[in-house]
Design a protein that fits this description.
It contains six helices and 14 strands. The chain has 212 residues and is an alpha/beta fold.
Length: 212
């Protein structure tokens, strides 16, 4: 079942286990917007979660092109009549049934409804976060993970694992770009989201004592 994390913001967990957790997010107003689509293999759980909410998305935004974020896109496009937004750097050649003519490309600083896109490469070159200033929420893509992804206590934000990342140094440097915004919550796709004091916690992580 989907979980309402914040008013009008729902976590749709499509895979959960001891070694991995995957999710998508549904913002139900003002324009119902789905952020990311899980794996192709988890599409049934994603669609079931949307059915449980009783909300049909009118927009889907992909944060980056990893399979666990874009894998269900073709099924979502097939099921719903919606606008599709994909980062300008994302290669769609591996997504059957979705072509460049079907999507709107976006980049750093672009507005998508209530979101502002922030390019935060490092995990992947096309990774973007989505900032909803009115709600005080950041959807991080894979710019950060929840600390419990690495067996630590939840409630904090850490970098994604290096083994799954393109350039972890770049990923860390680009977290400064998120700190240019005001927010209270950060929604992550791996580990647990941080729903209070997230900017303060991220600032302490980025600007650690003794940082040169």
């Amino acid at each position: 079942m989907p979980t309402e994390l914040l008013s009008g913001v729902h976590d749709i967990t499509v895979m959960e286990g001891t070694d991995r957790r995957l999710r998508a997010y549904l913002f139900d107003d003002p324009t119902p917007t789905l952020v990311d689509t899980g794996l192709e293999a988890t599409t049934d759980r994603l669609l079931s979660g949307l059915d449980d909410l009783g909300v049909e998305p009118e927009r889907v935004v992909i944060t980056h092109g990893d399979g666990d974020h874009i894998g269900g896109l073709a099924a979502v496009v097939d099921r719903f009549d919606l606008e599709v937004f994909v980062p300008e750097q994302t290669d769609l050649s591996g997504v059957d049934g979705v072509e460049d003519g079907d999507v709107t490309r976006y980049g750093d600083g672009d507005e998508i409804g209530s979101f502002e896109a922030v390019h935060v490469p490092g995990h992947e070159p096309d990774n973007h976060a989505l900032v909803d200033a009115d709600r005080g929420v950041v959807v991080a893509g894979d710019a950060v993970s929840g600390s419990d992804q690495r067996g630590l206590p939840e409630g904090y934000l850490i970098l994604p694992p290096a083994v799954f990342s393109d350039d972890l140094n770049e990923a860390e440097e680009n977290l400064e770009r998120l700190l240019a915004h005001e927010f209270d919550a950060v929604l992550v796709f791996h580990g647990s989201s941080v729903l209070e004091d997230a900017r303060e916690k991220l600032d302490r992580f980025v600007n650690f004592p003794g940082k040169p």
